[in-house]
Amino acid sequence: MEGNTNNMNNMNLTPDFQDHQEPEKKKTPYLTKKMGAVIMALCIVAAGGGGFAAGVAANSIGADGVSASQTQQPTGTVNTADSGSSSANASTMASSSSGEMTVEQIAEKVCDSVVEITTEVTQYDNFMRQYVSEGAGSGVIISSDGYIITNNHVIEDASSITVTLRDGTSYPATLVGTDEQGDIAVIKVEATGLKAAELGSSADLKVGETVVAVGNPLGQLGGTVTDGIVSALDRQIDIDGKTMTLLQTNAAINPGNSGGGLFNSKGQLIGVVVAKSSGSDIEGLGFAVPIDTAKAIADDLMQYGYVKGRISLGLSVLDISNAQIARMYGLSGTGVYISEVAQGTNAAQVGFQSGDRIVSFNGTEITSVDDLKTAIDQCSVGDTVEMVIERNGSKYSGQLTLEESKPDTAQS
Predict the structure, then answer these.
(1) Residues 341-365, buried b or exposed e (16+ Cβ, 10 A)?
(2) C-alpha to C-alpha distance for 386 and 83, rounded to whole angstroms
(3) Exposed (0-12), middle (13-18) or buried (19+): which is 299, by Cβ within 10 Å?
(4) What is the spatial distance between Cα 38 and Cα 76, in angstroms, rounded to a whole number?
(5) CA distances, 219 to each of 28, 81, 164, 260 (Å)
(6) What is the pTM of this model?
(7) Active site includes 397?
(8) pLDDT tens for the 412 residues of the chain, in order
(9) How far apart are CA 66 and CA 296, in angstroms?
(10) Annotated catalytic residue within 183, 227, 300, 356
(11) Shortest CA distance to 5 belongs to which of 397, 408, 405?
(12) Is residue 258 flagged as an active site residue?
């Protein structure tokens, strides 16, 4: 619908509050906690029924502009399933005639660098009663003074994190920083003299190279070693709606391996295991975040507590994909609608409101989540863009300065 382009009014939002009850403990046996969709300052939720507050989601976009969707796959689903180095004894680490180490030699070099991670997460049932669920995953030591890299989804929302070394020693761990978009987190234990993994370079990998995965499958089998090859490089894989560029391997990967290490034939860490693809007709599809990507994220997390340069719009939005859903919400048509504006953000100061339909972003017409994500990806923190919205049949425009996505817990 056409209308005049006008200035917009600010709107203050009132946060919801939730009563809390004493927790009742429940256990979830030996499975890693499922990856959640990326929802920070900006999240996109596809409406499946009910009202905006119902939170029925099929698509989401994070504060950093990462799209996310939870899609049922007919034949299989993608399930979410460690910088110093130590020199090994020359006789133990002797190379084979090809210049590569055997799987046995790789395992001897790296297994002390891979840890088991267990978590407790407070959740709510349908009656809003609290209970504590347990999760398990893996991690890799990246410094001798206790820094450990793992997946965000392994420790996400955890109220407590415990790290267990190969020799059975356990330590409580603290969260240093986490990045939902890259699914990487860094935690730390108060210990010294740990055996840190030697970092390799994922840029140097070739398809067909031998790789070894080490982790904690099923949350009970810490130190498990499986071998395979690099099946493919730079795979664009959609995991819980986030498109990630990953290494593919046929080494056996199982729930609990998430956050564990993928090592090359020199015993160097070249990937952080993130997912496997499963289904009745699917075998041998495992994936890892390339170490070059993971290290860059981990460096920012250790230095700043967050990844610099990620964009936050300060908005939550709904992706209305068909006319039937639009009618359920009482909307005039399909498109991307603002469901919430975070207080104190530039978006709130401009005057964007819940119920506004995003017509265009920085000159790009917006009809879907993918359109908005693509437009955001062309921008940088600090850019000022024009965002046109439709409200009550009229169009309005606002100049929005893009903010950096920075969690409240980030270091100053």
Answers:
(1) bbeebbbbebbbbbbbbbbbbbeee
(2) 43
(3) middle
(4) 22
(5) 10, 10, 12, 12
(6) 0.68
(7) no
(8) 444 444 444 333 222 223 333 344 443 333 433 433 332 333 333 344 444 443 333 344 443 343 333 333 333 334 444 333 344 333 333 444 456 889 999 999 999 999 999 999 887 777 767 778 888 899 999 999 999 999 999 999 899 999 999 999 999 999 999 998 899 999 999 999 999 999 999 999 999 999 999 998 887 788 889 999 999 999 888 777 678 899 999 998 888 889 999 999 999 999 999 976 555 556 678 899 999 999 999 999 999 999 988 888 888 888 888 888 888 878 878 899 998 898 889 999 999 998 899 999 999 999 887 888 888 888 999 999 999 999 988 999 999 999 988 876 554 4
(9) 18
(10) 183
(11) 397
(12) yes
Tokens for 126, please give them. 């349908």
Closest C-alpha to 246, from 231, 266, 256, 265: 231
Q: Environment class of residue 237 by beta-carbon count within 10 Å: exposed (0-12), middle (13-18) or buried (19+)?
A: middle
Token pair in block for residue 324? 């039937």
Place of tokens 């415990």: 162
Whether residue 20 lies in the annotated active site: no
Residue of 113, 143, 202, 258 with catalytic role: 258
Q: Which residue has the tokens 């349908």?
A: 126
Residues in the chain: 412
Q: Which of 9, 13, 57 has its CA nearest to residue 341? A: 13
